[in-house]
Fold these 3 entries.
Entry 1:
Amino acid sequence: MRRTDAAGADTLHGPAPRAPVHFAGAIPDNAGPAPTPPSSGSTMPTPRVGDALLCYCRAGFEPELAAELTERAALTGFAGYARTERGSGYVEFMSDDAAQLSRALPFPQLIFARQKLLRFADLRGLPAHDRITPLLAALEASGASKPFGALQVEHPESDETKPLAALARSFGNALRPALRKAGWLTPQDGDHRQRLHVVFLAGDRVLLAAANPHDSSEWSSGIPRLRTHPSAPSRSALKLEEALLTLLDHDERQALVRDNMQAADLGAAPGGWTWVLMRNGMKVTSVDNGPLQQALLDSGRVDHLRADGFSWQPKRRLDWMVCDMVEQPRRVAERMATWMREEWCRYAIFNLKLPMKKRWDETRLCLELFERQAGRPLTVRARQLYHDREEITVLALPAD
């Protein structure tokens, strides 16, 4: 992939609330095989407008996202196939009715997707001296409805596309007024109309895509911009902060994350997740044989128990239990199910560390095992967060 001068030569002349979602469970074995893409010896058909879902993911997890999209599409009765390259940070799912498929696969239910878009144009060979003119022409030819309510110029996060960040910023500054002049963008940003995404894959290649503001991530490239607080014991605090921000909507955070709630942090040391709970006003029992940051102990809101997080149980029901223990994911899922079955807590957030291979299969198995062994109706949401690594984060709430 060639690098392009960030400045380019483009000139002017040339959070929404998320509804609660129940995890769909494992894909049944009888869902049927997914359609296969054309063989390498055949000609790949050019998709028509709106014939591809475009989803971002963590670089290296393209096979997991492709498998998830393929199986979920088959379950909902849609033909198609996934197309991607390892390390690219995105997956395209080709379908004859991608718009309808997008409606059948709500973004909050997707685990490995950071963002979900409906791609409607793939522009290649864009001239560096004027990318705006062919982009406007592509919009006119696309049949898309005017105007869009907002614009995001971005790139999937990968080693190859990181050099495009400056280009995306500068191009967005030039493109925004040009779109407004041509009637393609509302005078003020809002979430009442589709959002336009201009996705750089190279200096001369751009994808055009649309997003429903209420069925997609609000953040550019699907990445929430969080910073490590200097007093946080570890960077793992960002994982729990992101989980509370993305797995709960605004109203749920107001109702479920409150002062003086009682919480337990299993496998707490050095205290990153405990710190987040304490910062949200909770009183925390931190369970770990390892040491905690002294500032947490001095706060008066943290009780450190030197015990095994897999065997400890509370004497009375707590509001929250969180767990980021490094352990086999099935063992963690089983222990978390025990907590919910015995009603030792009302709400839970936990991480499942995934194996190096068959990570989508392990994800399905663990979530299915957790829901089955919990033995009561739950609302379960799972996501590979930006601050997660080889893991996913799971939220469990009592079902309404």
Entry 2:
Amino acid sequence: MAARGTRPSLYISVDIEADGPIPGPYSMISFGASVAGRQDGASYTAADPEQLTFYRELRPISEEFVPEALAVSGLDRDRLVREGADPAEAMAEFRAWVREVSAGAQPVMCGYPASFDWTFLYWYLIRFGGDSPFGHSGCLDMKTLYATKARVPLRAAVKGRMPRELLSRRRHTHHALDDAIEQAELMSNLMLWTPPVPARAADRSPLVRPAAGGA
């Protein structure tokens, strides 16, 4: 059970696609979210990542964009200008969805890596509505989580170096909802993972030092 006065955490995997490096001058053009699981004290329960999801494609907020960034998502910017959801309406719908799925728990955004996705998501939540259901710091970076549990430098916390049992079998498509679901599985795998106990330094050493005074 959670400590007295501490609500359980509900981890929500979020992935965003953008047409540039920062929000404001550039736009978040789509975002997807998937409930990964719930932590109550030391207990973590994984959710079906396809069961509770949210996805919107957004109307751009400026005329500026970086072609290479836009190409990653494969979305048609001209179509989004005509048909994309109004950002204020989309963020209001997202707030309502987060509060509905996290009833009784503290919602925590998780991302891989969280820094880029959180920058856009939080900016949009505050710019279009002035309120974040995650607060100002309710985010968790899966790269940091892995680096801490595996005891490796952050630069080594990449999917290509992770144990295969941690990785989702889903493809990383750069469709925001697909990737949010994939990363929700990674999040649950990380939370439930018990890394192997590292060997002692003496056990790893190939050298055997003779005792003092020995032959």
Entry 3:
Amino acid sequence: MSEGDIRIDGQVKISFGPGKMQAFVEVTAPVGEGVACSKEKVMKALEEAGVVHNISIQAIEAALQEKNWNDKILVASGTDAVTGEDGRLIVKFPLPKERIGPKVDEKGNANYYDLGLIHNVKAGELLVEKIPPTEGTPGTDVTGKEIPPKKGKDYRLPRGKNTVADEEELKLYAACDGHVNIIDGKVIVDSVLTIAQDIDFGTGNVDFTGDIIIIGNVTTGFKVKAAGDIQVNGFIEGAEITAGGNIVVKGGITTGIKGFVKAEKNIFARFAENSRVEAGGDVMIAEAIMQSYVKAGGSVKVSERRAAIVGGVIQASYLIEAKVLGSQLATQTTVEVGINPYYREEYQQLLKRGNEKRKQLDALNHNLQVFQRSGISTENLPDSKRLALIKMLDEFKTIRQELAAMDDRIKFLEEEFERVQAARVRALEIAYPGVRISIGHAIYIVNDPIKYSEFILEEGEVRLTSLR
């Protein structure tokens, strides 16, 4: 039998790649009088094999036209699943690497007192926001079967001490006021800030919304401010210390003329020398107050060892007490009780402001009287002058109201000044010459050493009574 008598049509063979993500066609050549494969035959073979997705007609036609017999031709490709985007954590506060370092001003000068070590947050402040991962996009193999995507990587909120998440676990908030930090991958908020070193160029100034514990000293030129209490285990030297609560200094205080120590509540220290110390409550000193300005809304007491007050000005509302007042050298020492020193300052400021307001009121009253005497009706005034007149009347009314409020406050303070009967000064051992004692508006000058004495107010005068 000759080849011309043989008749074998071209055949189609379908095969798949891994996971049926590819479909291949292999076409054999016709033999003898056999018929070559047509596109329709190939398509039918693909259909019978279940290939329905992303078929390349162009690849089939090219293979048939170029007679790529017995070649494995890629004619269909699946669509890969797209992995979802990973979740993200967006930190809403500046990270240490972003904030720590001397601040540089517009002129390029670096401020080594402000290093940005502390970042304060308030309770309820957003710290971290989580962007959830996406589910991804499904893929399809060449048979049309869906391929599930891989979800993006998820991250949990880095919840640490004093933080709280919302119900959806998408936002992390501060649970209290404090300093936010990242420790071992967790976001924490410390309501008590412990600084295990001196406050110096290694720390910069400190401003904190909670309590501060300083293991070392606070050195000259630096500032420490806390909304709560401040405890200094060392000394305060030429620094500015401000607390919304109490201040405890286990060493002593030597602020000099540029520094100060101020507390809304009480101040406790071993000694104060050449310092400015102010407390809304009591000032309690262990050993001595020397050449200092001390102001207390409550009492001032020096209680241990020598327990002396020597030099300076000491002001308190109710009581000033020490073993020794002044010195054998007749050091000028002023102690004042009976009038809250903060009230005294406020009273003087009110009197000054009141005088200024009355001058403004007199000037406005004069201008208004001039207009009234002119007999001009407001209806005949130009708009600009009418508006100026209205503004003048409003200002006149406002100043009168302010003066009335000031007068009420002045009256209250004057009544407080009269309540000085319980105020007293105590020298538990001795008061030396050079000591000036004020109780309310009454004054007593110590001219000779006085032992074991208490100074009180009787019938408008300072009287001396014995403590023995």
